[in-house]
Every structure is written in C-alpha cells, then in structure tokens.
Amino acid sequence: MTVSPLIWGVTIVVILGLLAFDYFFHIRKAHIPTLKEAAVWSSIYVGLAIVFGILVLVFGGVTMGGEYFAGYITEKALSVDNLFVFLIIMASFRVPREDQQKVLLFGIVFALIARTGFIFLGAALINSFSWVFYLFGLILLITAGNLLKPEDSEKDEANNFIIRIAKRVLPTTDHYDGDKLMTVENGKKVLTPMLLVMVAIGGTDILFALDSIPAIFGLTQNTFIVFTATAFSLMGLRQLYFLIDGLLDRLIYLSYGLAAILAFIGVKLVLHALHENTLWFINNGEHVSVVEISTGLSLSVIIGVLAVTVIASLVSPAGKAQTAVNNARRHAVDYLDLSYTSDESERERIYRALCEEEKQILQMDKKYRDKVKDIEDIRAEVARAHEEHSRFTSK
Hints:
- With 395 residues, the chain is mostly helical.
- The protein has helices spanning 5-27, 35-60, 62-92, 100-128, 132-147, 161-169, 193-217, 223-234, 237-244, 254-275, 295-315, 317-336, 344-362, 366-369, 375-393, and strands at 182-185, 188-191.
- Helix content is 72%, strand content 2%.
- It has a two-stranded antiparallel sheet.
- α1 (5-27) runs antiparallel to α4 and α4 runs parallel beside α7.
- InterPro entries: Integral_membrane_TerC, Integral_membrane_TerC_rswitch.
C-alpha cells in the first residue's frame, strides 16, 4: 500500500507535537517524576502506539497492520535493552536524578533523527541492491552472537572515544550547574558534564540504530511502517526509564531473548535475500526457491520469545537476588556521592530504598546472593553508606 504525502505529513506533525508536549509540560522544569506519573504516561504512549496500529490495520490491511505491530514490539524490546546502557552512562556521569529527564528526551530526539536517516538510507539501498538483505542479515546474526557474550561489569560506557576527545580538546568541568550545558569557572566558559553526557547518549544512539534498523527491515520493507514503528517505540521511553528503574537488572534473560529474536530475523532476511537473489556466485545469479517466513509467524515468535524471557527473568531466584544486590550497590554509591543531587529528600529516598533492599537480600537463599559478581565489594559499599548515614544524622 502506498502512503500519501498527506498521511506522511500528518504523522510527522503528530510525532513532533508529542515531543514538544513532552518538553514543555514535563521536562522544562527539572523534577523527579513519581512512579504514578511515569506509569500513567507510559500507558498513554503505549496506548497511542496501539491505536495507531489499529488504524494501520483498518486502513492498510492485515499484512500492513501485522508488520507494524511486529516492528513496534521488536523496536520497543530493543529500546528497553538500550536503557541499560543509558543507566550506565548517567551513573558514570553522576547526572542528578532531577535532570535525567532532559538527558533522556535529548537521547530520544537524537535517536529519532539518527534512525530516520538510517531508515531512508536503508530503503534506498534495498530498492537499488537486493543483496543488501544479505548484509542486514549478517549484521543481525553477529549482533545476536555478541548479545550472548558475558558482559564486563567494569566497562565504562561513558568513557568512549568521543568523550575523551572532547575532554582533551575543549575546556570542561566535572561540576554541574543545574541543567546548563556551559558554565563559568575561574572566569572562563567551560562545558559542563551535562553536555558531555548528551554527546555520550547521542553516540550510543547511532550504534543502536545500526542494530535496530536492519531488524525492522527484516520484518517489513514499507518505509512508512518502519518509520512509525520506530518512532512510536521511542515515544514514552523517558517515562519507561523511571517506571522500570531498579527492575532493569531483574530482566537477566533479556539479552538471550533479544539474541534469539535478532537471530530469527537475521535468518528471515537471509532467506528473503536468497528468494530475491541476483548475486552471480549464488545459484548463477538466479532466485533461490526457499521458504519465506510470514509476518504472522514473525509476530508470534517475537511475542512468544519476549513473554518467555520476561516471565523466566521475573520468577528466577537468581534474577531476584541479582536485582536486589545490584540495586543496593547503586543506591549505596549514590548515597555516598554527595554531589549526586541537591535534593535532600532524594538523599533520604535513596537511603530508605537501600535499607528495603537489604531486608529483601537477607530473606533470600544465600547461595543465590553469594553468586552475584563482586559481592564482597558491594557489601563494603553498603557498609560505608551506613557509616556515612550515621555521621550525617548525628550532626
């Protein structure tokens, strides 16, 4: 189905309007969103995405609607996985919690711009060279393999090449000045960490696009569906960050689920490439008769794999232990970092959360909590947080 320029224009205006609304009504004044606020707005954005999908289903047909929902669910799952990296970056830069919303919105806008560029580039390549499906399939299979590799918990995602160059070439400071990108220090204008963290988020967004765009092109080659599914998957990501903050570590099997989904789509792309084959060294440049995977089967596999992954993560004793211990470490580190936030109530919130997590940990089977990596270092951080709290309250 061909989408008219009018529909394209209306869709783009609606998406830009949602971003503008997010900024002027939620981000402009720095604050820490409540759980209720994050839950309500996450539901609204998911609801809008579903309503849009129903409209596509009604006016575009079952195939087009199925492609949209398969693409949206896949991109949403990849976006949740990306939140892990955002969490590491903001922790590395010690971004005050009340200013994290602005950083996330910048990341979403930059991701939308970067992915839109990749979408139209990918569409142009596909229309000109059918062998690009082989390349996209290979990218996804390699990405799936990388997701299965054990992660290095000591890796500093914020200390990337762009940041090191920026710190070396440009005058920077380690201190925040609200949400300003530049400030004056010793009579000179310098860059604040707020600008650097936005550069780090933008750089990772480009890397994420290299994985997500081939994935959705493996489900549909309709540029309108690719764009809208990607855009709506990014909408509400800021609210989702605050809603599931602290639960991200719980999804211990998410990387395995995503690896399975990307590998599945990678195989689907290779099969499609064989069906459309024009490379002379494969079957003498003739199309290869292979089974092609339908949109319905793709949607079923994606939903099934994600459901099994999430349920297995949530009921796993190891997952519960890892979540509680990692959250306790994060809250202990945040509490010890006096420059983390200027909000005293936020400091108390962190300490209460730390105490609650300790209670949960003590109720768990010792064999699971002792298996968490760097457990002794984590216990030392928690002990230091208690000592600091005792000193703070005794003043």
